[in-house]
Design goal:
CATH class of one domain: Alpha Beta
Number of helices: 10
Structural class: alpha+beta
Helix content: 25-40%
CATH topology of one domain: Nucleotidyltransferase, domain 5
Length: 410
């Protein structure tokens, strides 16, 4: 079976979609695209029809490039709050040889989740902390012999209405949601597993929000969303130079530096402001503006880390679209010191840090399937034939979406 999956990340500024295939355990990106997010602003769906149209547009663009239709996705749910519940579960091993099967692993995680989530919340993920077969502990219990399988797990949950609202929007775009994921957990899947023995933080700098996740021994234990991001930089530039938002964003992304250290007064950009007047922008001046605001966002993220955990932080990874600013590592180092680093996404076809959540979803989903000894492919045999032979078959089928995350234990 081909291991081909697609991941959808809905943000207030852009919607991202990445399709990839795992070959011998390595991810190969088949397509990575993004489009403007219409109908979803400041973490609120303000026009469902526009958002559905935005999703359809992006899916159609990716499908056209791939040569087959994308019908199923993993979905990052941009929840505004998250609750965490530490639980335990038990499953009797009843196979003839008393070996742990994939069904045992699925059932023990279900048992850990059952009855432990409030009625107004939905389970996003059940993260196994440690399995135990009788008295033997293991991260990968498949095939071990014993009478009982135990698990200690972290349950991640959030507002049921908010989650269902997003699933409904994606469904109305004709896409089936296979599994839902927490953005911070997906982001973490991109980076070095040697961090799993330590406590650290992962910061994703987005356009209108910044997410902060705290990880202890590889387990997400707390998170928070801050309503600050790249939009504030666009607004500052627009106000100072009287520019349209699109021009201000272009100046930020193409001309400004995240640090004034390498910025030059000699580097200048000529633009026309809202009044039709010609203006000249100095790289040093606009970089100082950008740097000050970026530092403000990072300082707030640092304060949030201290609020979310009292444990000593061994590492800080900063990723997300805003980190694409030139010289961003200089400001990150200045604010957090040597324990911080830039989390880069460097896959062929997806060399953009804004794809962190999408790529991470693919990696996490693949590892989840392997733990459960399951196989799954999001495209049909006809699609695979199209992929291999290059013949395009057009279909008008529209699949009503439903989450069967419990089959994979979320």
């Amino acid at each position: 079976m081909r291991n081909i999956y697609s991941a959808l990340d809905i943000g207030s500024d852009s919607i991202k979609l990445v399709c990839g295939e795992f070959i011998h355990g390595k991810l190969n990106v088949l397509c990575a695209e993004k489009t403007y997010s219409l109908g979803y602003q400041n973490n609120v769906i303000n026009d469902k029809d526009e958002l559905v149209s935005s999703i359809k547009k992006l899916v159609n663009e990716c499908s056209e490039k791939l040569g087959f239709n994308i019908r199923k996705v993993l979905l990052s749910v941009p929840v505004t709050y998250t609750d965490f519940y530490y639980t335990e579960g038990k499953e009797e091993i009843t196979s003839e040889d008393y070996k742990v099967t994939s069904d045992n692993i699925i059932n023990v995680l279900k048992n850990a989740a059952r009855g432990n989530i409030p009625a107004n919340e939905e389970l996003i993920q059940a993260i196994p902390v440690m399995f135990r077969v009788d008295s033997e502990e293991s991260k990968t219990p498949l095939g071990l012999k014993g009478e009982n399988l135990y698990v200690k797990a972290m349950l991640v949950a959030s507002d049921k209405r908010f989650i269902y609202e997003f699933i409904k929007v994606v469904s109305e775009a004709g896409i089936e949601v296979v599994d839902i994921m927490h953005g911070a957990l997906a982001d973490y899947a991109n980076f070095d597993t040697s961090l799993d023995s330590k406590t650290g933080a992962l910061i994703n700098l987005g356009n209108t929000s910044t997410s902060v996740g705290i990880f202890s021994k590889g387990i997400l234990i707390n998170s928070e969303i801050l309503n600050l991001g790249g939009y504030e930089l666009d607004r500052d530039i627009g106000l100072k130079y009287n520019l349209k938002r699109s021009d201000a964003k272009m100046v930020k992304e193409k001309f400004a530096l995240a640090s004034v250290k390498n910025a030059s007064n000699k580097e200048q950009m000529k633009l026309t402001d809202k009044n039709g007047e010609n203006i000249i922008i100095s790289q040093r001046d606009v970089s100082e503006l950008v740097s000050n605001r970026l530092k403000e966002v990072l300082k707030l993220a640092k304060k949030t880390i201290n609020h979310l955990t009292k444990k000593e932080i061994s590492y800080i990874i900063v990723t997300g679209g805003l980190t694409e600013l030139r010289d961003a590592p200089l400001v990150i180092h200045e604010e957090f010191g040597n324990k911080a680093r830039l989390g880069m996404i460097n896959y062929v076809g997806a060399r953009y840090n804004g794809y962190s959540t999408c790529i991470g979803m693919l990696l996490y989903f693949y590892s989840k399937l392997r733990l459960r000894d399951k196989e799954f492919c999001m495209i049909t045999d006809d699609d695979i034939d199209t992929l291999v032979n290059g013949a395009r078959e057009v279909t008008n089928d529209s699949i009503l979406g439903k989450v069967f995350g419990y089959f994979f234990d979320n």
